[in-house]
Write a structure and sequence with these properties.
Elements lengths: L2 H6 L11 E3 L2 E3 L13 H8 L1 H9 L2 H16 L12 H5 L2 H13 L2 H7 L11 H8 L5 H14 L6 H16 L8 H8 L7 H16 L7 H12 L5 E2 L14 H17 L8 H20 L8 H23 L2 H22 L10 H8 L20 H7 L3 H16 L2 H8 E4 L8 E3 L10 H18 L34
Antiparallel strand pairs: 1-2, 3-4, 4-5
Helix pairs in contact: 2-13, 3-4, 3-9, 3-10, 4-10, 6-8, 10-12, 14-15, 15-16, 15-22, 16-19, 16-20, 16-22, 17-18, 19-20, 20-21
């Protein structure tokens, strides 16, 4: 199995085909459910379940689950009164005499459990802090409290993780034994009571999370989660900082400067051999010119450091657009289309020239150069200006028509964000992630350039697809392939779906 396949085999996401459509918006499955409000396990629920989060991190799993069962039995036997069956920090602290203190005393009967819970004492705003501090005093080293809190938060950070699900099961279990939760069948009840030893966990685990989230949304919000994260940020440092960009793919391809020089030489030779006279040949000029332009961009990318720059992503977008457009032109192979493409470019040169009259010239192009290009095929007074796309279709439609939608999907969509400066590009290029779980992996503005993925292997593949236009239009041209025939082709990643369905929630 390739590295790319391994990366994707555990991803359980709803395919685009299953998203709803509202005009130009693809609606995510949980975004379209009426009468629901977002609820975050990380931001809100995890701090409220911090005592159980510490236990699932600090104890063996069977040990932690046994502790949870002891609490449930105490509730069921009326030895422990839990208001509304809700066993969160804020809910328990509303009635400390009847709920919180008995729970703490039950927990600290076990010395090992008490030591695992000791980090709670450093949280100044913890609901019922005085009782927790009184019962846990002297059971641990204060210097270890924050690292242990960080470890616990990291363990249960993912709302679908085994540890987070165990904590959420504890909340569902207390609701069940308090007679605050009704389930549709006896088997459903037994699956909760005997978790994780009964039923198909691929179904039981999502049921637990859905039930916990449903009851969570009915609870009154408190300030405790905000105060928790605020103290975590104040008391612990950022770091380490990292980027989401991974290592290069093992099947990445590349070429040498010598190969690129050979390609340019072959293109020049082939072009000259097709010249019979000096009349304008829109087809020949477009085929060789667009390929040569792609080679020029590839030559710039091969320079040290260029292929991992922000600008490289814009270059990859341009290469993708050239490949799609040229493939479409070759597929049509109509004199009118070739001239339409060429005239559009002349019209754009005229438009740029006209806009620069009477203003300060930019540094990257001169008015004289634009005027010369606009007049090159014929006097510009005969040249009309097309303000839309040259073929009156958007690039997506052209890609679909020319069967280059794979290039569009892989190399054009995301790189367009970099061209337009959209948030996705800004996020990828200018921010790092704080590795401190107590900071919720927040973003940090990078002082130095953020390392980005290398576009060069992708650029080589796209240019090689573009070269097919020369081979098709001019079969006698000798143009070497840049990517060997046996090299694996890049395709859209497949998503493997659990046969029991995705374990999903709106968190």
């Amino acid at each position: 199995m390739s590295r790319r396949s391994k990366r994707n085999r555990h991803r359980n996401v709803t395919p685009l085909s299953k998203h709803g459509r509202d005009g130009s918006k693809l609606v995510a499955p949980f975004d379209g459910i009426p009468n629901t409000a977002p609820s975050s396990w990380l931001d809100d629920a995890l701090p409220e379940s911090l005592w159980s989060v510490l236990l699932v991190d600090g104890l063996e799993r069977d040990y932690a689950i046994d502790v949870f069962r002891r609490i449930a039995h105490a509730i069921e036997d009326k030895r422990l009164a839990v208001p509304d069956g809700v066993i969160t920090h804020s809910s328990l602290a509303r009635e400390p005499e009847s709920a919180l203190l008995p729970l703490i005393e039950l927990l600290v009967e076990d010395q090992v459990v008490a030591e695992v819970l000791f980090p709670l004492t450093v949280l100044n705003d913890l609901p019922g802090h005085e009782l927790w501090a009184q019962c846990l005093a002297g059971l641990g080293d204060l210097k270890e409290a924050w690292p242990r809190l960080g470890s616990a938060v990291l363990t249960s950070l993912d709302h679908q993780s085994q540890e987070a699900t165990d904590c959420r099961w504890m909340k569902v279990l207390t609701l069940l034994v308090s007679d605050k939760l009704r389930l549709p069948s006896k088997e459903s009840v037994l699956e909760i009571l005997e978790y994780p030893n009964r039923g198909d966990m691929r179904k039981v685990r999502p049921t637990i999370r859905a039930s916990e989230m449903a009851f969570r949304q009915t609870q009154t919000t408190t300030d405790w989660p905000v105060l928790f994260w605020r103290q975590c940020f104040a008391e612990t440092p950022c770091g380490p900082l990292f980027s989401y960009n991974g290592d290069p793919l093992p099947d990445a391809v590349g070429i040498t400067m010598d190969q690129l020089r050979t390609l340019k030489s072959q293109l020049t030779d082939a072009y000259m051999k097709t010249l019979a006279d000096t009349v304008v040949d829109a087809r020949r000029d477009a085929v060789f010119g667009m390929v040569a332009y792609s080679a020029r961009l590839l030559e710039e990318l091969i320079r040290p450091g260029m292929s991992t720059s922000v600008g490289a992503r814009m270059t990859l977008r341009t290469l993708a657009e050239i490949a799609i457009t040229l493939t479409y032109l070759v597929m049509k192979d109509e004199d009118e289309k070739w001239m339409q493409y060429r005239n559009y470019g002349m019209g754009q040169a005229k438009l740029a020239f006209m806009k620069q009259e009477g203003v300060d010239e930019p540094s990257f192009v001169t008015v004289d150069a634009l005027e010369s290009m606009a007049n090159e095929d014929r006097w510009l007074e005969f040249t009309s200006i097309e303000l839309g796309n040259w073929d009156k279709k958007n690039l997506r439609a052209i890609a679909e028509a020319s069967k280059t939608k794979d290039i569009y999907d892989l190399y054009y969509d995301w790189t367009s964000h970099h061209l337009h400066g959209h948030w996705g590009a800004v996020r990828e290029s200018c921010f790092l992630v704080c590795g401190n779980p107590l900071h919720r992996f927040h973003r940090v503005l990078a002082a130095d350039p953020v390392p980005l993925g290398d576009v060069f292997p992708d650029a080589v593949r796209v240019v090689d697809r573009t070269l097919d236009a020369v081979r098709r239009c001019y079969p006698d041209a000798v143009i070497d392939r840049l990517v060997p025939e046996a090299a694996p082709t890049r395709s859209a990643p497949a998503v493997e779906v659990d046969p029991a369905g995705p374990e999903a929630s709106s968190e």
